[in-house]
Fold this protein.
Amino acid sequence: MSKKVKITHELPAIYQSDSKILILGTIPSIKSREVKFYYGHPQNRFWKILEILFNESISDKKEFLQRHHIALWDVLASCEIKGSSDQSIRHEVPNDIPKLLEKTEIKVIFTTGKMAHKLYQKYFQESISLKEINLPSTSAANCKKTLSDLIQEYHILLDYLE
């Protein structure tokens, strides 16, 4: 059984000045920290969903995000966590999302999963006036949602990128 460890977010926010949407997870998983990129677990469906929505193969993830004006980051800068379980998060410290927003054209924020939404609401609901839309987690642990279900729900991203 793994114990809680304090982790600090080491992945930079991916954005550019003309980013239109921001997708926020909670904090990088163990696998994402190992591969040093967001949604890095091979069973996570995030990148597969984007490939299907945009009808293209993603070879360079950062270039893909920038070309489609998508910013990617996480709600938390650090926390104590057991493994990669969002439910075990304690003693969290939020990222400076308002500072990121000042540098972009972001008009809507998407949170991925219940915990990202809960933490976003806790730390930013009062200070950020942009619309926030919660989407389901793309983690394989979210077995209630099929890939088809997720594609249908994530289709809303396209509405804000046209």
